[in-house]
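Lab notebook, design round three. We kept the backbone fixed and only want residue identities now. Task for the bench partner: fill in a sequence for the structure below.
Input structure tokens:
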């Protein structure tokens, strides 16, 4: 397990992301976290990239784009796996489980 980065900005971005993600608003979740991620340069950047990719994969899956979902989900799994089971108050294992159908 990696040491967590915990800033007010990252907590706010993750909270908004998780609210949208859990509501099934995957496109919005991706947009929320991407706005934070583009300027983020810390060494756990791949964690945020993986969350964004997970949201995109589930958005594609919901739209019936199974090929796109599978491709993005594979990248999300690769970026998130090092942070499982939990990182920055996010249940990474649960997100990885949600990607199983993709």
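Proposed sequence:
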């Amino acid at each position: 397990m990696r040491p967590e980065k915990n800033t007010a900005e990252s907590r706010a971005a993750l909270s908004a992301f998780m609210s949208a993600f859990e509501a099934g608003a995957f496109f919005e979740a991706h947009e929320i976290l991407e706005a934070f991620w583009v300027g983020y340069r810390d060494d756990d950047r791949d964690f945020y990239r993986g969350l964004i990719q997970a949201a995109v994969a589930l958005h594609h899956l919901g739209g019936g784009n199974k090929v796109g979902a599978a491709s993005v989900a594979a990248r999300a799994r690769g970026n998130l796996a090092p942070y499982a089971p939990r990182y920055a108050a996010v249940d990474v294992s649960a997100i990885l489980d949600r990607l199983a159908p993709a």
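Keep this in mind before ordering anything: The mean pLDDT is 94.
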